[in-house]
Amino acid sequence: MSLPPLPKNFARAVDLSSLGKPPVDSSKIPGLPITQENLVSEVLPVSGQKVVIVICWSPRSTQSIELLATMDKLNQADSLPDGQPLWLLGTVNVDEQPQVAQALQVQSVPLAIAVIAEQLVPLFEAVPPADQVRLVVDKVVALAAERGVGQAPAEREIAEPALEPEEVESMAAMEKGDFQGAKVAYEKLLARKPGDNLAKLGLAQTELLIRIEGLNPPETIAKANENKIDLTLAIAAADVEIASGLNKAAFDRLINLVKVSSGDEKKKAREHLLALFQLVDPADPDLILARKELASALF
């Protein structure tokens, strides 16, 4: 079982530098407050028995409070027969715990991270719709159970959301192989609903199909392998590899280019790599490793 392919920037994030005065009493925040001390002594060890979902938040962010309220309701609803929670809810107040926020590489709040057997899995930023939050939580808990951590959630019947007219239009275009038509449909949907994150993902996927249309995959990859410092060839090969499910090969290719290039080429390689990250399951082990390797390559 895998997580749904939600983009990393699932909704508008709040930059830490733009936050104002605290509108809430942080003492009423649910979940286990995570500090530099109990992160190592308590949170990481318990993540070997059950999933810990960490919400990085700030009392200056109203979106943080909204997400924490949603997570609290889900956490209380997910109880085992003995009354214990199916998964643990942890919270990091980035204002009070800057060292923890730095360790978790928090750049905006709210941010949700799952901890599974001491491994960090980024989930989403900002405040997705409640049904999407439920879907992600169920998926990550089920994935952890398959790996021997905790128990799987009870099966739920999830109603399929109604399709927007533009989504129907894009699907019809895709069936005809008209990727440009599908792209136009997604662009119309985003013009009408700029915050529709699934439309953003659909547009990104469609743009990938447009980029690789007409390419010969083996030939494209072979050319890039012959000249590994050619940015244009590397990007084309990485696109082909992502579309073919060869995520690790695509990530390694662009990370290596980030390491050896500089200036605009380094920036373009990094930006394209980040765009490809958004097209991959956030729980994919290759993606998790690639994020760490990119950070090392940059810093």
Explain what the structure shows.
This protein has 299 residues and is of the alpha/beta class. The chain has three domains: 14-146, Glutaredoxin (3-Layer(aba) Sandwich); 165-212, no CATH class; 217-298, Serine Threonine Protein Phosphatase 5, Tetratricopeptide repeat, CATH 1.25.40. It is 53% helix and 10% strand. The protein has twelve helices and seven strands. The chain has helices at residues 36-46, 62-77, 98-103, 130-146, 165-175, 179-192, 197-212, 217-226, 231-243, 247-260, 263-277, 285-298, and strands at 14-15, 32-33, 52-57, 88-93, 108-109, 111-116, 119-125. A hairpin with a 2-residue loop joins strand 6 and strand 7. Helix 6 (179-192) runs antiparallel to helix 7 (197-212), helix 9 runs antiparallel to helix 10 (247-260) and helix 9 (231-243) packs parallel to helix 11 (263-277). The radius of gyration is 20 Å and the shape is globular. The model is unreliable at 1-22 (pLDDT under 50).
